[in-house]
Specification:
Largest sheet: 16 strands, antiparallel, barrel
Structural class: mainly beta
Low-confidence stretches: 1-21
Oligomer: single chain
Radius of gyration: 22 Å
CATH topology: Porin
Mean pLDDT: 94
Number of strands: 23
Shape: globular
Number of domains: 1
Helix content: under 10%
Order of helices and strands: HEEEEEEEEEEEEEEEEEEEEEEE
CATH superfamily: Porin
Strand order of the largest sheet: 2-5-6-7-8-9-10-12-13-14-15-19-20-21-22-23
CATH architecture: Beta Barrel
Strand content: over 45%
Distance between the termini: 29 Å
Length: 440
């Protein structure tokens, strides 16, 4: 890990040598279609590169060999997008890219469309816009669809993306949606046709009598909504993704609530033979605030969310972000190998996040810093104890923006094991990540 960090820092230093960073601004790729610039086509990209050291879960294997720890270099996200406002009423958004490309990935595969949508503004003042396609406009909570280039911490709170990869395409869904803003109220509602779970990229247990899992029957329609009231500055809803931090450039206080519901989304066996279906109902409330403390844009950012997930009896979903392992010895870790944890399940979660951005140009000609910490506190039916995950880190905002950012993050997670018919925490492990982001 030490060598990887030194290498990344040397590469980064070389890229920025002899550049007066405070005077440099990353370019905008935009073609105006009228003189005022209200009609346009705009392109962008975001790339996030990881150097990582992970303390492996108990019993972890890589290609069949035991691994007490792993280190790797990977591409967490690589996205290219085009957004256009073609007339006063017509807009489109297309995004293409790849996620989680690591040394364990299948070579020469993986890129796909994240977004492909068109929309029509019914009200020119923005009270009502209708759209359809593959989209991130969804329900539940703020970071069910995060703007990945502006994330405060190393990664988004992924427990809010409940069906990611199961019956949607990396959180995007085939939907018809309505969105709008009326005074301080911002809303989005959507009717979604879930993708078939038979084509899921995620493995989950077969139909059984002890634990609810996602049904393999033809999916029924999904309904979702997210409403939030914006007390201070208003956020844009031009795209379906929510900003993580404005770096002290806006004063924000938003209170939100959302829901996702799908009839007969889950199933399990009863009496060992009868198949019983149940609904998936997810709801939550959250609060997001960012308060600038001076004209130099030092700022405090706070996010708090509470959610209640009903995915049927004892549902649990184990997830390891870009997992650096591909196997485990049975019975050693409830979540499996690598960095996996029981992240999502039937039960309640309290998530908290806080960040502080130092003043602009804290480092003369070299940008500024932003520190953060967050915690996920989940009480899941399947676990005998709370699932507590902690994260902390620091962002170096090289030009004072998200355009070029170096992040060092630490995650501390639990390892659960089944002991005398109870799923209990037996140890804790750490993961250390150095991320370099470029975004325009």
């Amino acid at each position: 890990m030490k060598n990887s960090i030194i290498l990344c820092l040397l590469l980064h230093s070389g890229l920025h040598a002899q550049v007066k960073l405070k005077d440099y601004k990353l370019p905008e790729i935009k073609k105006n279609l009228n003189e005022s610039g209200s009609l346009f086509i705009k392109a962008g990209m975001v790339a996030q590169f990881w150097g990582r050291y992970n303390e492996s879960n108990n019993g972890t294997t890589v290609d069949g060999y035991l691994q007490k720890n792993t280190s790797d270099i990977a591409i967490r996200r690589l996205r290219f997008n085009v957004y256009g406002q073609l007339t006063d009423r017509i807009a489109f958004h297309v995004q293409f890219g790849q996620n989680n490309f690591s040394y364990l990935s299948k070579q020469q595969t993986g890129s796909f469309f994240h977004d492909a949508l068109g929309e029509y503004k019914i009200s020119k003042k923005g009270f009502l816009t209708l759209g359809s396609g593959l989209t991130g406009y969804s329900g539940l909570l703020r970071y069910a669809a995060p703007s990945v280039g502006s994330i405060l911490s190393l990664d988004a709170p992924l427990y809010q993306q409940v069906t990611n990869g199961i019956n949607d395409q990396f959180l995007r869904k085939l939907s018809v949606y309505a969105k709008g803003q009326l005074y301080g109220l911002d809303y989005r509602i959507a009717l979604t046709k879930p993708m078939s779970a038979l084509n899921s990229t995620v493995s989950f247990p077969a139909l059984n009598s002890s634990q609810s899992v996602f049904s393999l029957k033809p999916p029924k329609w999904q309904q979702q909504a997210y409403l939030n009231y914006q007390f201070f500055d208003k956020e844009s809803n031009a795209l379906g993704y929510e900003t993580g931090t404005y770096l002290g450039k806006k004063k924000i206080l938003n209170l939100g609530a959302g829901i996702i519901h799908q009839q007969d989304a889950m199933w399990m066996l009863k009496n060992g033979t009868d198949t019983v279906s149940s609904d998936m109902t997810l709801y939550g409330i959250d609060l997001f605030t960012e308060i600038p403390l001076s004209e130099r844009h030092n700022a405090v950012t706070v996010y708090v969310a509470w959610s209640d997930y009903n995915l049927g009896t004892n549902f649990i979903r184990n997830l390891g972000v870009m997992n650096p392992a591909n196997g485990s010895i049975a019975g050693q870790s409830l979540a499996g190998g690598g960095n996996a944890i029981p992240l999502i399940g039937t039960g309640q979660t309290l998530y908290t996040q806080i960040g502080y951005k130092f003043k602009d140009n804290l480092l003369p000609e070299n940008g500024t810093f932003q520190v953060y910490a967050n915690m996920q506190n989940s009480s899941y039916q399947y676990l005998a104890q709370k699932m507590l995950m902690y994260e902390a880190g620091i962002n170096w905002l090289i030009h004072g923006t998200h355009g070029a950012k170096l992040t060092f993050g630490i995650q501390n997670r639990p390892v659960f094991q089944s002991i005398q018919m109870e799923n209990r925490e037996i140890s804790r492990k750490n993961m250390f990540v150095l991320q370099y982001q470029i975004s325009i």
